[in-house]
Amino acid sequence: MNPPNYPASLAAFISRFQLQLPQAAQMSFNVRPAAVLIPIICHPEPTLLLTRRADSLRKHAGQVAFPGGKTDAEDGSPIVTALREAQEEVAIPPQAVSVIGQLAPLDSSTGFQVTPVVGLIPPGVQFHANEAEVADVFEMPLHEALTLSRYYPLDIHRGGHSHRIYLSWYQSQFIWGLTAAIIRRLAQQVSI
């Protein structure tokens, strides 16, 4: 799947991603399926596309996220969900995305089992934020996103249970929670 026009760093990422087995999914207590697209823009120096959710949203307002959401009954697969949501949120045409695989699902704090879908997007695609859902769209260099040392652990104790979340920053953007966990898991999968 490595056409000769991919930059060497992106070709290496694709190879490592597809040759490594994803981490096994942990037992999930969440039954509501959801999916997100991990959009990788195929610039000479590849980037990761992220959004900042609208401040007016009921849940996760203002947080950095991937385009995504809950699975609709007619979706049929996490890939269909991720592509549909990416089109709704940031106008990425599904036909512009070359899906290379998916990570094992992760549980969200809001009761969803979220499947991250990794997709490559040509650099010429224009993004348009759906203002009802997305306040900002930005790109982060892929090599920076995949640097494990940029994710700081924080142990949270709530309701008699302890769990770990990860925190990171990119320029003025604060990346944490499920988004940071997904990027960190991707970084772990492709690290050699």
From TrEMBL:
<dbReference type="InterPro" id="IPR000059">
    <property type="entry name" value="NUDIX_hydrolase_NudL_CS"/>
</dbReference>
<feature type="domain" description="Nudix hydrolase">
    <location>
        <begin position="31"/>
        <end position="162"/>
    </location>
</feature>
<protein>
    <submittedName>
        <fullName>CoA pyrophosphatase</fullName>
    </submittedName>
</protein>
<dbReference type="InterPro" id="IPR045121">
    <property type="entry name" value="CoAse"/>
</dbReference>
<dbReference type="InterPro" id="IPR015797">
    <property type="entry name" value="NUDIX_hydrolase-like_dom_sf"/>
</dbReference>
<keyword id="KW-0378">Hydrolase</keyword>
<keyword id="KW-0479">Metal-binding</keyword>
<dbReference type="Pfam" id="PF00293">
    <property type="entry name" value="NUDIX"/>
</dbReference>
<keyword id="KW-0464">Manganese</keyword>
<dbReference type="InterPro" id="IPR000086">
    <property type="entry name" value="NUDIX_hydrolase_dom"/>
</dbReference>
<comment type="similarity">
    <text>Belongs to the Nudix hydrolase family. PCD1 subfamily.</text>
</comment>
<keyword id="KW-0460">Magnesium</keyword>
